[in-house]
């Protein structure tokens, strides 16, 4: 997983906890 994606997820997880699953898939 690219570092940028990791940072992106880190910032988005609080807002998009459910979307995290969508991003992973």
TrEMBL record:
Entry protein name: Uncharacterized protein
Record organism: Heterorhabditis bacteriophora
Species lineage: Eukaryota, Metazoa, Ecdysozoa, Nematoda, Chromadorea
